[in-house]
Specification:
globular, six-stranded mixed β-sheet, 8 helices, alpha+beta, 6 strands, single chain
Length: 168
């Protein structure tokens, strides 16, 4: 965003103020393929938020939580049957937020695997079309090794700057 603002002729002061405003309005969403793996990694770091019963039940029923991180708080905003359905819903919600209008014309997507796999996920192509139609650039990246170690191969994360909203 700083580069975009600089290119538009904004002053250093204007850029600094805008970035401070954005810093408190970044939303991150994640869907993981393997709850057991994520639970084990979280426990290793001292996080006890995902219990064994929740992981076992979620895995047995193929329930995938959609996690939301905002202003230092992280928690589930939806529990959806099946990974494909969960990412499809996530991409649909991102499309809705893009239609309403984000604080910056950018959406960042990170995938724990090859980007060709990301591009075949349900709802991804539609989200990219919505973004293109609203002048929003989608930045794709392979998840960092640290990220994959912590949340598992095949996890999807999406980040963007937006005001408070509900996952619907």
């Amino acid at each position: 965003e700083a580069v975009r603002l600089r290119g538009s002729g904004a002053s250093v002061q204007q850029i600094r103020e805008r970035l401070e405003e954005l810093a408190g309005n970044v939303h991150g969403y994640m869907v993981t393929r393997d709850l057991y793996y994520m639970r084990a990694r979280a426990r290793h770091k001292g996080d006890r938020s995902v219990g064994l019963l929740s992981a076992a039940l979620g895995s047995a029923l193929d329930i995938k939580p959609v996690l939301h991180g905002y202003r230092g708080e992280t928690g589930p905003v939806a529990k959806i049957k099946g990974f494909d359905s969960a990412v499809q819903k996530l991409f649909a919600v991102v499309g809705q937020r893009v239609r309403v209008g984000l604080m910056t014309p950018t959406v960042c997507v990170s995938y724990g695997g090859e980007l060709d796999e990301l591009r075949t996920l349900p709802g991804y192509a539609q989200m990219k079309e919505v973004c293109a139609g609203h002048g929003v650039t989608v930045y794709e990246s392979v998840m960092s090794l640290t990220g994959m170690v912590n949340v598992g191969k095949g996890a999807v994360t999406v980040g963007f700057a937006d005001g408070p909203h509900r996952f619907e």
